[in-house]
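TL;DR need structure tokens for one chain.
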Amino acid sequence: MKTALVLCIVLAFCGGLAVAQEPAAPATAGPPQYSLGDQTFSPTLGLLVPLFFMSWQPAAYATNLSPGAVLSLQIQPYLTPNIRLGGELALLSAFSPNANWLLEASLTAKISYVISLYPFEIPLSLGAGVNWVKYLSDSALDPLLKPSVSLFWIYNSSWSYGLNFTYWWDMQFSATPSESRVGNFLEISLSALYHY
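>> reply
TL;DR here they are.
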């Protein structure tokens, strides 16, 4: 009888301790931490708006191009938790008023500084490289600069989704300086960003 009474008291005491303990707080996801060796891969699809051509005089001219489609793939490893350095391959397609096809393929080195405001990231980027342009029977290889700003929502530690605004400066040099032009285009695109 004494043993049963002691056992009941011990069980009641243990039960009281279990009730008195506060439940453990659920684990919350915090901002992901990146370091040297972490990488990102990002496919992008969007709209490219032809703005104007500028000559070296300076003077601005209409592009006479339709809005176009742009598709790109980007790989950027992390150098620090906030700096990524990599490359981007992009394809662009648009049409003239006579339905002639303009095709561009660019290859750029790209550096990004990432501002973290969890659950968002704001990459500020600059790409520099070359742009192969094909229109009718003409083709050229032009220097290209692409500054951009993006806003990404961090879905989880592997995926982020975002919106990009990228300005394309395509520099078309000619042996006759008055015929040289700088193409100005605005890219508005959506990206999925995979971290690994």
